[in-house]
Amino acid sequence: MPFNTSVFINCPFDKAYKKLLRLLIFTCIYCGLEPKLSELKDSGSARVDGIIDLIKSSKYSIHDLSRMKSKEANELARFNMPFELGLELGVRVSGEKDLSTKVCLIIDSEKFRINIALSDLAGSDISSYGKTHQVEKIIKIIRDWFTAVIGPGMPASSFLYLEFVEFISDLQIDLEDLQYGKNAISNLPTSEYIDFATRWISNRPA
Amino acid sequence: MSAKSSNLVKGRNRTALIRAIARSARTIEPRIHVIPSKGMWGIKFEGKHRLYRRFVRKDTAIRNAKALASAGDGSLLIIHGADGMVTGSISYQQ
What we know:
By secondary structure, chain A is α/β, with parallel strands linked by helices. In chain A, about 45% of the residues lie in helices and about 10% in strands. Chain A has a 5-stranded parallel sheet, with helices on both faces. In chain A, helix 3 (about 80-90) links the parallel strand 3 and strand 4 (about 105-110). The two termini of chain A are about 25 Å apart. Chain B has about 90 residues and is of the alpha+beta class. In chain B, strands 3-2-1-4-5 form a 5-stranded mixed sheet, with helices on one face. At the A-B interface, helix 1, helix 5, helix 6, helix 7 and helix 8 of A face helix 1 and strand 1 of B.
């Protein structure tokens, strides 16, 4: 997979985040990028080594740090996302030529929180997608970031949102026609979802 | 276990779904969607990249979408949730 068109997605893989992950993936593919997720790695290789490989082979990366705080008493916060962001920033200064050109987007559901919890990132631009209307906000944040780091020519965020709505409907109806249940989309493995989204987008009329 | 071997859709179903996905992407069905839009609820016709109308309340949007479908403007009404996912559909095929 080419370095210049790959985007590493560092986000939670829990059930609650799955719908936003579907959206992130769709937006990346529609903008011409190939999403890479640690979830897709073959379990044959050591997890951290596999993640470093993914980070090194992706020019772009998106890091969602929204799980830095536990939601309930005695629940542990998840440190995987800040850890993988650290790996991303580390490989950039490893001395390898291509890696110094890497760029990343950091997102969170709340504003300014990261600057307190991870003060080493003070001065970095962090985009917040809030707690409501997350779907449209996330598409806009990602699309606008791709425009800033790749260049103009990306579809408008409102267009991407309406395309996402049609894709999800088509996928749901096609799965139901084949007798898969109403929860089939959420049960689809991510690799399979990426495959169907890629096929759907490549068949869209120009 | 590799990611590939854990696919949900396998064998002939997979081939059928791949064909259906490609066909769905190219075809514009007379469908009406009720979707969240900027804190309101919008009615969108399939294939259109602009909303037909926006409403403050979801139930008002659904009522208006049903009226459009009943009048023959759509064969299927698809209702989406706040996360954009499909929560229900109503067929209006004759």
